[in-house]
Structure to design on (676 residues):
DNA sequence: TCCTGGCACTCGCACGGGCCGAGTGCCAGA
DNA sequence: TCTGGCACTCGGCCCGTGCGAGTGCCAGGA
């Protein structure tokens, strides 16, 4: 177990390195922090910390920098979450209050997070897995061509074109529309499949094929709808990443563009509370030199989606965590109001 | 006026520089291109080209690189549009054919363009100013609560909730729906206002207020719908930009994130035909070291939106223009089919 | 008039040596 | 267990040098 002072040394190293972006040596440490001991003592402590794998030397005769493991210890034991200042909180609220619809809320949140943390912001759209069906509409565009319109309780609308093999009569259409709506309106997406399972059987032989087609398109649409979307912003902040540019940020940009990757990343985080994944803790290869801070947000007590930031492992963890948490809270409030 | 050969020299310089990314000298030029003259002659030509401002030397005793003006001449007079190969065309078609809805079409287009050109792709959603109404649906969610669903010929769907002061009967609703559709289906957004102007008068006194409300929401939606959106992708390609990294790409990333800026940029381009803006020809400051190749696309002969790529001024113009044009054509086809 | 070969010149860049200094590990003493 | 001292390491910086690509100019020839 590390002594109290050694932890203090580690904290000082992390803080200094985050501030200066340069390896920190024993002498500089004693000058900037009131550790109450001499550089020589600090050197011994540093050697111990290095043995344990918390810090490392880029090259002999250079200062130390924290390892992923070092940051992990820092985040878990040494750092708190730095609350935002009152003006910052007020600014967040003002900025988010101006949003007019869901897209706008998410867009503003992304910009806000990116600006506050000076890092890349990732905001997931509220998930629809818990959504319900508000209405299903079926329109005949042509004798053998239907349009299916699905309206969700979150206000989203999806439409699909359906080509049928055989023409579908107006009365059959009205019938199907009515039966569909009476069965699934107000029900959750996940419940729909079994609710409509036996529907084709109750139709005339001639219409069954078409009904089945319509149902399969409907189920497909529901599945697609529950697919999660996200918005990303602040990528320009990647330019403040490090010195060895192209190599570092290229994979990050690539990962960010693959929304699937990012969604998986968010999915791996805890549903409630804040998650910090540091460097190699991130499964995706392109993100092993980044840290990801995420938190769930929601209109009630349940988290409906997640948001967070992606930045260099050398980031200001307390400040970032504070900003992420604060933004998540305010977004939750906004969603609850609307 | 520049002689034929000097133009040829300029073309050779542009081609070599685009290929190697290094200043090109007179000797290398004569070796790689069959100019039929000696390096000394080429040197004289280069001096003349430099006097005219078409090429420049990064430093004395280095080769020449084209200036923005040089690229401009190259694009206008010396370069054609390089058609894509048959396999490439087939790949485009296959890739785009898999799209299920408008978002998917745009998303696939962005990825395709980014991959083909290895640059940043920008695709504007089909603008609705020239769009026509495919269908309007009115649903009663509650006695005094309606939902308006607007479907456009480009496949976009918008919905709005409408709270009425007085309940609106099912028959009136069906009536309004039918009359609305018969008047505006197939008509342009811009024509809709005058087409529905006198509609309230033909309804019972009791229903007029509601009809007016519905109409005003519809018109509002049409206006909002014409607001333009865009999707951007392939930003990872920025890492292949140049040598002096952070400074170059930071402003570009910032400009790309400001969709307003990009929309303005697209708006400045010609509506029909291809537009190439080189370096300082771009009004936005962050993009003065980039070239932007854009072209309109649409389902018919009219362009409904634009797409293009943003890359370094040192780009393969013929190839890029070919890819942009081809993608625009196929996207147009896809939109026309659906 | 235009092209060509030749020649002297310029200058960026890569290479190598030497110096400096920050930082280290170790050790003996308090 | 902490401290001061000391020798050592090694990366970064500065500088001088040599190389070579590239240039401009000029005189001669088609």
């Amino acid at each position: 177990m590390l002594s109290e002072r050694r932890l203090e040394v580690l904290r000082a190293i992390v803080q200094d390195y985050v501030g200066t972006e340069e390896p920190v040596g024993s002498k500089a440490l004693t000058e900037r922090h009131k550790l109450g001991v001499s550089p020589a003592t600090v050197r011994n402590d540093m050697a111990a910390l290095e043995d344990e794998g918390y810090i490392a030397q880029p090259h002999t005769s250079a200062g130390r920098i924290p390892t992923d493991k070092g940051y992990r210890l820092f985040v878990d034991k040494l750092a708190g979450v730095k609350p935002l200042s009152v003006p910052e909180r007020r600014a967040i609220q003002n900025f988010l209050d101006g949003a007019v619809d869901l897209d706008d809320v998410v867009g503003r949140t992304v910009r806000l997070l990116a600006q506050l943390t000076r890092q890349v912001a990732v905001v997931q759209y509220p998930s629809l897995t818990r959504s319900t069906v508000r209405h299903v509409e079926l329109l005949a565009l042509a004798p053998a061509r239907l349009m299916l319109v699905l309206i969700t309780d979150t206000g989203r609308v999806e439409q699909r074109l359906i080509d049928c093999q055989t023409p579908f009569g107006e009365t059959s259409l009205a019938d199907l529309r009515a039966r569909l709506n009476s069965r699934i309106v107000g029900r959750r997406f996940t419940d729909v499949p079994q609710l409509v399972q036996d529907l084709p059987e109750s139709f005339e032989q001639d219409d069954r094929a078409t009904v089945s087609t319509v149902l399969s398109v409907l189920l497909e649409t529901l599945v697609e709808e529950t697919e999660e979307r996200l918005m990303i912003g602040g990528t320009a902040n990647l330019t403040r990443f490090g010195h060895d540019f192209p190599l570092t940020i290229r994979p990050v940009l690539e990962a960010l563009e693959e929304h699937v990757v990012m969604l998986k990343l968010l999915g791996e985080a805890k549903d409630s509370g804040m998650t910090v994944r540091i460097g190699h803790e991130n499964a995706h290869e392109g993100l092993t030199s980044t840290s990801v801070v995420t938190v769930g947000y929601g209109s009630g007590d349940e988290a409906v989606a997640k948001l967070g930031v992606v930045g260099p492992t050398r980031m200001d963890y307390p400040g970032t965590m504070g900003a992420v948490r604060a933004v998540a809270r305010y977004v939750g409030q906004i969603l609850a109001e609307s």
About this structure: The mean pLDDT of chain B is 88. Residues 247 and 286 of chain B are 10 Å apart (CA to CA).
